[in-house]
Structure to design on (121 residues):
């Protein structure tokens, strides 16, 4: 390779055969910018209110649906388990508790009338 390079250097020399006219790059950037077409500005599309709010509405609807689904499944199981606990208690067990607390009939009546309606369901 070096041999070929040396032969080429002897034949043509080290001078660069390509030249640029004097002052060619002095105003090159300005001339190039003048030749380019003007860029047209397009107005940005206006975003409607619904397009801004839509993701939030969808997310809220998803959480509401999720909440109702969970309440449906969990709520039924809690009610069923509460009813199961009440039916498992026998009258003898309740009577023994009343005897231990030394409640008479009047105090028991007063307690039941003052209690929430939820204990009757």
């Amino acid at each position: 390779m070096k041999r070929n390079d040396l032969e080429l250097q002897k034949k043509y020399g080290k001078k660069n055969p390509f030249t640029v006219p004097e002052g060619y790059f002095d105003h090159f950037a300005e001339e190039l910018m003048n030749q380019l077409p003007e860029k047209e500005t397009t107005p940005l599309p206006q975003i409607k209110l619904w397009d801004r709010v839509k993701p939030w509405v969808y997310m809220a609807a998803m959480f509401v649906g999720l909440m109702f689904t969970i309440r449906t499944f969990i709520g039924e199981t809690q009610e069923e388990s509460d009813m199961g606990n009440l039916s498992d208690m026998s009258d003898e067990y309740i009577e023994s508790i009343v005897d231990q607390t030394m409640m008479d009939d009047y105090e028991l009546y007063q307690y039941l009338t003052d209690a929430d309606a939820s204990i009757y369901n």
User: Anything to note?
Assistant: The chain has a mean pLDDT of 81. Residues 95 and 102 are 10 Å apart (CA to CA).
